[in-house]
Amino acid sequence: QKEVEQDPGPLSVPEGAIVSLNCTYSNSAFQYFMWYRQYSRKGPELLMYTYSSGNKEDGRFTAQVDKSSKYISLFIRDSQPSDSATYLCAMSGRNYGGATNKLIFGTGTLLAVQP
Amino acid sequence: ETGVTQTPRHLVMGMTNKKSLKCEQHLGHNAMYWYKQSAKKPLELMFVYSLEERVENNSVPSRFSPECPNSSHLFLHLHTLQPEDSALYLCASSQVASAEQYFGPGTRLTVT
Asked: Does A24 touch chain B (CB under 8 A)?
């Protein structure tokens, strides 16, 4: 079983739709949860960062963490064609594997927002 | 320059060549990372430097050799690579106590 599972998509939605992206994980030691956005032929860009359980909102983006279910989500409201990218979830637990900042990534979900 | 920069952006090399990838961070961070990104696979952590000391070597073949001369610069020296080493190589940086990592644009490496 992979430590982090993420549906690779592709996910295609019409402009203005609400998008829900999800990851599940198996290691209960994870405490830090991140979402990265990666445009084609670019490096990943940190989009959202949350610690432990709860919600965090930033503009059209909301990140949710449910540690009891080992499930994290990223919601995008009023999606735009410029949101078309691959979205990567990543997570880390302090001192995980002996390295305090070792991130474990999902494979990424490719999102296409159609105008 | 801002953020994390990487050069070159594209590199084609033969299996017998020696080349180096360069990363520079302008964020005042003190930890730097090398990752490999291949199609349809999660990012693979290769090396971690914390306060200029290597703290993680994730079972990477010796044909990849990292170097961190100071907290702002990171190199990845390449020699006698294999075609399966073709990938996007990403550099990232963070503060040692933080899980927030910031990535550069990557070097697209093709080994022929």
From this structure: no
